[in-house]
Specification:
single chain, mainly alpha, two-stranded antiparallel ribbon, binds zinc ion
Amino acid sequence: MKCFKHDTEAVAVCPYCGRAMCVPCASASASAAPRLACSDECAKALTRNEGVLQLLLQKSRQSARANSVYCYLCGALSAGGTVAAWFWLPVPLLMWLLGGSAAALIISGAWFGRGAGQMKL
Ligand SMILES: [Zn+2]
Ligand SMILES: [Zn+2]
């Protein structure tokens, strides 16, 4: 594989456009970009892409956290409903339904919360 600019053997490949780079090309771009890119344009595009990715991750982390809070809240409400039903309306089916949904909501709340914690770069 030859460098895209020079007629020398390539040592690296641009992660953005896939062009091959020789040692001087790779080291020339390495100082400007966090990752090896063949040109300033590619380096900028890579940084931009990473910015978008970070933003997306941040967004999904936020929504996972919001989901987790929402699930815990609904789970707590259902659990409260189960207790209330125990006192005022002890119908087995109703209590099964309320208790079951409380458990399911709290479990999914924990799952979302764990997902939010795991989404790190
Ligand atoms: Zn490139
Ligand atoms: Zn080169």
